[in-house]
Design goal:
By secondary structure, the chain is mainly α. It has 2 domains: 201 residues, Ferritin (Up-down Bundle), CATH 1.20.1260; 231 residues, Orthogonal Bundle (Ribonucleotide Reductase, subunit A). α1 packs parallel to α8, α3 runs antiparallel to α7 and α14 packs across α16.
């Protein structure tokens, strides 16, 4: 993976190639300043020291002013066509998930008060505009933009200093590790700029998007990326699947009165933690969608698909593998292979920065799990290439079937106004969608 500085430079070079794309970019930057101002004001509470309130309000006013300055810098106030309109919307959606995701990150939410959360959030998240605006000032070809953005950049330096001043006023027990927060902010920024760069490349060359893949699993990841509500429901369901799979493996031993394999407790603990991380990643957006009529039903039906996937997978393996140690190791191996592939596909296509960041952190754990399983199979003498082939083929057949069913479900809900894809896909080709049976037929076929 490229480093942070190189990734930002690549993004800036892409957005400044076309004045209409740069206008979309400036629209997103303006929206980011607006969201920052709203976030600042939302953290003013009873825990905010009275002597700091005016400075905090001034901070928010600066962000609102930046919003207004930046929006006026667009060389083209109106999008050229539907494709450029889509690009503006998607840039803004990416920015919003970055802001919401960062302020909901697992370290920042441990703050003892809303004031402490604001202070630490202000210090760290201001690093992003400082860095990206610096590169943008150097990269833009528009003199007016360069001059105005330099003034905005000067303000951001002051905001970082303001945050440091506020943090110094906090008692030691209210201080959160800046090193941890800066690491999270940097990783989330990298996810964001990488996704934006990929989006511009897809805009410039639509043929590089999905390619010619006809696998339902590949289509599913792409289609989820086009549907924010479906992404939230799917990630929520993946969280339940992480915990359900771990509990099922554990039950194979406890139900027979057998001791757990030595590596299992830590493995189960990791999967439970992954479930919480996935649910936290969609928590704030999901709250809004739960108020939309029909979303609860949609989420319930999405969750049923992954429940069916695990049921079919484990019931097939239980018939084939009678030994619980083999069932654990081979079952875990098949699931880990799917997680690597499917989670990576989600990261590739999603506009949700919080989801992509969370999944990237989970994939690091899964690499260790796969290594553990492979080592155990070799050390116990249980490694059988034919069994690995059977597990891989079984899992793939089941997941492809569930993917087709999920696509069918999304197509059904596309007809409901609130769930229709928000982007017109003016610059993204619609991929070949494999024919899917009706839900009734699939249920009858699989159960």
């Amino acid at each position: 993976m490229r480093n942070f500085s190189e990734s930002i430079q690549i993004l800036i070079s892409l957005v400044t190639e076309d004045a209409h794309i740069e206008s979309a970019w400036l629209t997103a930057l303006s929206y980011m300043e607006h969201l920052a101002a709203e976030q600042i004001l939302s953290n003013v509470s009873a825990s905010t020291p009275a002597e700091f309130i005016e400075e905090i309000k001034t901070h928010a006013e600066d962000e609102y002013r930046h919003r207004d300055v930046i929006i006026k810098l667009r060389p083209h106030p109106e999008p050229l066509n539907a494709a450029y309109s889509d690009l503006r919307q998607r840039f803004c959606d990416i920015i919003e998930t970055f802001i919401m995701g960062y302020f909901g990150n697992p370290v920042l939410v441990t703050a003892n008060s809303r004031f402490a959360a604001y202070v630490h959030g202000a210090i760290t998240i201001e690093q992003f505009p400082f860095q990206i605006y610096s590169y943008y000032v150097q990269g833009t070809k528009i003199p007016e933009v360069r001059e105005a953005m330099q003034l905005v950049l000067d303000d951001e330096i002051g905001h970082i200093q303001l945050g440091k001043k506020f943090r110094n006023s906090l008692p030691e027990e209210d201080r959160i590790s800046l090193q941890q927060l800066q690491a999270i902010e940097k990783e989330m920024c990298l996810v964001m700029v990488t996704r934006m760069a990929d989006l511009v490349r897809d805009f410039q060359n639509p043929k590089r998007s999905l390619g010619n893949s006809t696998k339902a699993s590949a289509q599913l990841a792409w289609l989820l990326g086009e549907r924010p509500a479906a992404t939230l429901a799917w990630v929520q369901a993946l969280g339940f699947s992480e915990s359900s799979a771990a509990k099922h493996m554990q039950a194979e031993f406890t139900s027979r009165g057998l001791p757990l394999p030595p590596q299992m407790p830590e493995h189960v603990e990791d999967e439970m933690r992954h479930a919480k991380l996935l649910h936290r990643a969609v928590l704030l957006d999901r709250r809004r969608w739960l108020m939309v009529e029909g979303y609860k039903d949609f989420e319930r039906r999405v969750n049923k698909q992954l429940e069916r996937y695990l049921f079919l997978y484990f019931s097939t393996l239980v018939r084939k593998l009678k030994d619980p140690d083999m069932l654990y190791l081979y079952g875990a191996w098949g699931l880990e292979m799917r997680v690597f592939k499917h989670y990576s596909d989600i990261v590739k296509w999603t506009d949700n920065v919080a989801v992509a960041y969370t999944i990237n952190s989970i994939l690091e754990d899964e690499a260790e799990h796969t290594k553990m399983v492979n080592t155990s199979l070799n050390e116990t003498g249980l490694l059988d290439p034919e069994l690995l082939k059977f597990v891989r083929q079984t899992e793939e057949e089941i997941f492809e079937k569930i993917s087709k069913n999920m696509i069918s479900l999304m197509m059904e809900f596309d007809q409901v106004a609130a769930f229709a894809p928000p982007y017109q896909r003016g610059f993204m080709p619609i991929p070949y969608i494999a024919p899917v049976p009706t839900e009734t037929a699939v249920i009858a076929e699989t159960l």
